[in-house]
Design a protein that fits this description.
3 copies of one chain form a homotrimer. Chain A is α/β, with parallel strands linked by helices. The first copy, chain A, is built from 4 helices and 40 strands. The first copy, chain A, is flat and about 75 Å long. The model of chain A has no long low-confidence stretch (mean pLDDT 96).
Chain lengths: 341, 341, 341
């Protein structure tokens, strides 16, 4: 189903192969030798396609699908059309991810250096890297094996990029030490000066920003996102973080492992996230806060105080989610009462 | 009035010519042969300039203007200085747009390819295109006639750009099929991976993003805005949409025709806008919503449920505007009462 | 302490030298000949380092520091460890800025033009400029002395950049007249078309954007920030403004001197800030407003009316801070009362 101008499909695979690679159980009566040519959405899939149901909002699309097979949670297995083969998984979205990766594996990096790339002679480039047109790599930079640096990206002096790294088109990276398998999307800005100055009526005075950006392994950093380097301490992004587009991360911020930061979130200087914190879109965090492990912050919330581990907060100033919902309901009722009087 | 370093003025035009090209009516006594050399703002215009009044906030500037002529709505025609010529229009801003386009037509595109542009030999470039320094165009891309690709822009493999397209400096476009007369501003990011992954304690697993970005005709996409490609379905931007700077549009989002999306709005994955939806600055939309045709969402609102056609919503969670204003008024009164006690 | 891959330290300096250059007073018993090799944070400093305390949140770090000297406000001088040398200053952050600038002075610009930079023959480049790989400079542009233009930046026709300017990697600047010592960070977008069009059911009609961006001296503009040029009037950024990352500044906006605009703020068209206005992160401003000198707007606020000089506003719609806090407290109490019933 994917446009062949942009994507190359692997396969085909049998239902048995797909069940095996994603750890799902075939429904009773499913034919493990049935062939599948591709993945597709429930609405557009045909008999040669495997699809998935994750968000229950799409149960009716499941009921009407013409897909040859569907990956679903066992709880809703009986909601599909008669005769459809099912792959039963407690985490159907993850199982779909594995199946889709089988059909659309990451293309292997092929060694190439664009003739017009400007690579400082003192930079060390690993084996099998693809370096696109217009790329600039500064003095003493260290690029690991199998990296892909897209067109017109700029990598500053001394930057370390681990093996398997991907730097998107027109991105820039300065003063950074980056782990393995990190993907930085087009236009992201890593390692520029933080917003540090001493205010004064005769003019604000710049404070030299002397820290780095230290990024762990398996991190994704979205398009046009900005991560300032530390002011003295480092700005730190833990292993496995997923950061969406247009996010602002201020100097000295520390994110633990596996944090999820949705688009347009802003995190002010020196705030620390524990592991697996999730921040909804457009949420804002004041500086110097501690957000506990596993905490969740709802979209557009404004966080101005610490959040304990595991809590879900919302509103501005952000408070525990249940309190915030109660406040919203209270206000709604008061306004309604007033209208009726 | 415009700085000649940056803009070239055409003309002069007579008042009659200007009235004709914008469909306005000359006020009684106006001299259709009066010559005009340029447009200018009410405050700075002289007798050789034509100006306009749209926002009534500037009625006093109208009353004091020294402009030779002013485009105004008939309802406020009597609020100008004695003797000023008027062009009467029910839509003075649109009439001004036509007049200003006459004085400042889009410069014609002249055919040129920068010697250092990297254009894949398999790309097809239309007639009369301007391709700036450092531009990169990938394999099998198709660029229509009369396109202008600014310096250091990057266009990926297989991208289709319709005739009359403009790609701004340092913008990047991947996996996209784009209609005619589309203008993508500097630094915009089109077609990168959407934010799709299956969360898990052992690490979040990437879901291949297999859709495209499909953009209609006559669309404008602002500076540093990000539009992710679909995850399987496409991300779709309808004809005539105007999208401002720093907007985030997630995977699978669909905008109908003529939508207006103001700066820093965020639209989460799979949300659908009908035709002519307007979203105020910094508004946020959760995923998988349907926003009806002609709906308006006020600035900074947080939309977490569907909106019927034609409605105006505000607040977070966004509710009908009148309810939201009533809630604000109720809270304000309660706080005042409390203070007085 | 700073990573030598990215930063070069000057010095060492004696305590007396440091006190002199930042105008601080040495504490009783401090040895003015004590040598310092570097600055460091309170937590990581050793005897050869000078540190500082500004935010009282870090008083306990001060109490436990092993730094050889600390710059502090006289009021908290007695909270440090016994025997530590102190530099007493009423503005310890500013004093630290001066000390840190002594250890890490801005590297001097060295004259260089990358062989692949595309500089129009009619452009005028001042003395001692560094022009990086892939840079594009348009016709009749004027670049002052000692400017540094980073890789792949694009400067349009006719742009004026004052002496000591810095343009970050992949930034773009059009239709702008820029003063001295202005620093534009990577990916910032200056001078593209503003969001100007006349809405209409048959299609929105572009209004030519005929103004410029005029930027004063000593201004900093953050990464991926967007500043549209004026529609007729200019967009104006006053001397000494500090603008953070991902900020949106619409056409015709005017900022006075010394304004501070934190990340992700959005300022709609034609709004005017007086001198020294401060806007907190993610705050939004409607168009055509006047924000008085010295006004402060709290983070995430939505400003839809003028603000008098010197006032602090918060909330949406933004109101005086005390009223806003009272409303929050009132709502919180009502919701609590309701729960207890």
């Amino acid at each position: 189903m994917a446009d062949a101008r942009f994507f190359q499909v692997a396969g085909p695979f049998t239902l048995g192969q797909l069940a095996g690679l994603c750890g799902a159980e075939m429904s009773a009566g499913a034919d493990s030798t049935q062939m599948f040519a591709d993945v597709a959405a429930l609405e557009t899939a045909g008999p040669q396609h495997i699809s998935f149901l994750d968000n229950r909002k799409y149960l009716s699309a499941f009921a009407a699908t013409k897909a040859g097979a569907v990956i679903v949670h066992p709880d809703v297995a009986d909601r599909g059309p008669a005769g459809v083969a099912l792959l039963l998984s407690k985490d159907p979205y993850r199982a779909y991810a594995m199946v889709a990766q089988a059909f659309y594996p990451q293309p292997a990096v092929t060694e190439w250096r664009a003739p017009n790339a400007c690579i400082d002679p003192s930079a060390v480039i690993g084996a099998n890297c693809w370096i696109g047109p217009g790329v600039v790599i500064g003095a003493r930079a260290e690029i690991g094996d199998n990296c892909r640096i897209e067109a017109n990206a700029v990598i500053g002096d001394g930057v370390v990029l681990g093996a398997g790294g991907k730097i998107g088109a027109n991105a820039s990276v300065y003063c950074a030490v980056i782990g393995k398998n990190v993907s930085i999307y087009p236009g992201a800005r890593i390692g520029q000066d933080g917003f540090g100055f001493a205010m004064g009526a005769q003019g604000h005075l710049k404070v030299p920003q002397l820290g780095r950006v230290v990024i762990g392994n398996n991190v994704e950093i979205g398009a046009n996102t900005t991560i300032d380097r530390g002011s003295g301490p480092d700005t730190v992004i833990g292993d496995g973080c997923w950061i969406d587009n247009l996010v602002q991360i201020g100097h000295n911020v520390q994110l633990g492992r596996g944090c999820v930061v949705v688009a347009q979130v802003g995190i002010s200087g020196s705030t620390q996230f524990g592991d697996f914190v999730a921040a909804g879109g457009q949420a804002g965090f004041a500086g110097h806060l501690k957000i506990g492990m596993g905490a969740k912050v709802m979209a557009q919330s404004g966080v101005i105080s610490d959040i304990p581990p595991g809590q879900t907060y919302g509103g501005y100033p952000a408070i525990p989610r249940m309190e915030w919902l109660r406040q919203s309901a209270t206000l709604s009722k008061l306004a309604r009462d007033k209208k009726q009087r």
